[in-house]
Amino acid sequence: MACQQSRYHSFSSASRLQPRPSGVTVDESFLTEDKSTQNRKLLQKRRTLPYREIFEFFIEDFKTYKPLLSSIKNAYEGMLAHQREKIRALEPLKAKLVTVNEDCNERILAMRAEEKHEISLLKKEKMNLLKLIDKKNEEKISLQSEVTKLRKNLAGEYLHYLSERDARKILIADLNELRYQREDMSLAQSPGIWGEDPVKLTLALKMTRQDLTRTQMELNTMKANFGDVVPRRDFEMQEKTNKDLQEQEIQRTSTPRPDWTKCKDVVAGGPERWQMLAEGKNSDQLVDMLLEEIGSGLLREKDFFPGLGYGEAIPAFLRFDGLVENKKPSKKDVVNLLKDAWKERLAEEQKETFPDFFFNFLEHRFGPSDAMAWAYTIFENIKIFHSNEVMSQFYAVLMGKRSENVYVTQKETVAQLLKEMTNADSQNEGLLTMEQFNTVLKSTFPLKTEEQIQELMEAGGWHPSSSNADLLNYRSLFMEDEEGQSEPFVQKLWEQYMDEKDGYLQELKQELGIELHEEVTLPKLRGGLMTIDPSLDKQTVNTYMSQAFQLPESEMPEEGDEKEEAMVEIFQTALERLQVIDIRRVGPREPEPAS
Fold this sequence. Notes:
By secondary structure, the protein is mainly alpha-helical. Among the domains are: 270-401, no CATH class; 406-497, Orthogonal Bundle (Recoverin, domain 1); 514-580, no CATH class. Helices cover 69% and strands 3% of the residues. It contains 20 helices and six strands. The strands form three sheets. Strands 1-2 form a two-stranded antiparallel ribbon. Strands 3-4 form a two-stranded antiparallel sheet. A two-stranded antiparallel ribbon has the order 5-6. The longest helix has 124 residues, at 66-189. The termini are far apart.
């Protein structure tokens, strides 16, 4: 056995040193394979060659096991030959796979090139369309300028023809005058005409005609001015009768004017406070003031409020059973609390309704245990103080009588106006001349009339006797007192806004020409708005229609859709809903075409 091992080692060593036998064949396909595959196969053959030679040596040495070992070798050789045949059979498939892969890559590259070409064509088409749009816009501008020019030319031609007509009338009058003069001269030269001087007769006739014309004009003026005039005696008798009837009617219907000085002893603060409250107010405002004073006194006496229950008609922030504590805040505290609520509401976009936000705000401020008490306390206060701007506006929004955007828009308008005045104040002294004040108002509110601009100037401190060079402390116009009351200038802005809204809706009513109890369709209401305010854009009109018909804007039918005619609403209901939101004129109404 030791001899066999030594022979094995010597044989193995010799096999490593000897070169490859010349009888070993090389597969020709080996030459066609890539270098990495050739190297791999060569390495495999080199690794298996020693084992093959050793195994053959074992077969020759161990005579007893030679048949068995030969069978094993033949089996392995057969298996290896079979595997080689399978590999040779798969070689074409591999080549085909490579070919298919290359073909697919070429197709992908071709498709990408085609897509790139299409994208390039689409970009070129886009650029051409943009150029076409620009060209159309230029044509539109050109046509508009041409229309404007033609209108001017038409107006010029119209004036020219008017002048020509007047000149023709004057020429005809001159021709008639010359004809009359010629007839007069012919008559004067005829024999037997009184023997008067022809020149004198001509002048006399001319003066007589002028007197006749003047007399005729005076007669026409008298008829126009006094055609419906009654004799003075009849007028005085009718005036006396009318005066007697008016005195009887006044005695029958009128009541004695209240003596408001009696309130000075009842109102808290005495005569001085009442005089301060009543200054510059009419009887209706004094009644509201007196009611507020009485209501505030009753509020101070109440320690608890009875809960209103959980009915559907009760606002969500007031739904409670039982007694609720009256927190008894001062008027100033309530105003400051409402201002804080507005600041938080406007600080970020709120998706919840305003009543829900109000109650959540109270919960965050005072905790869940006191939120309901503060809700009742605030509600009872803002319900009483109608004269306070902050309270009355908050109450209107809270109860759904006015939209939030009305308050927001008003605040933005005031802020924009202050910004414009600050920009006009180049020296940053807080002062503007009355002329600058007027200019800023007209530029900020181009749709306001001269009368409205004058009202704002007077509210700001301007008087007809004032000079345009007088200086105005414009920053003081936007200040508020401790109870949130604005200066008269800002109050006048709010009054004008409400008057403009009422006038706008009244103009819409007149344009549609229907009664309040009648139904109005969506297209008719839309058409009425576009007629009185042609500058309205589609988005704004859809917002108005959504409010008037209580539909989400996403569900509004397109203009011209058959569904529009099926959407009807009572006209008065639609107007009341529009009164809630911020609806105002966007641009001037187009003038009626001249006849």
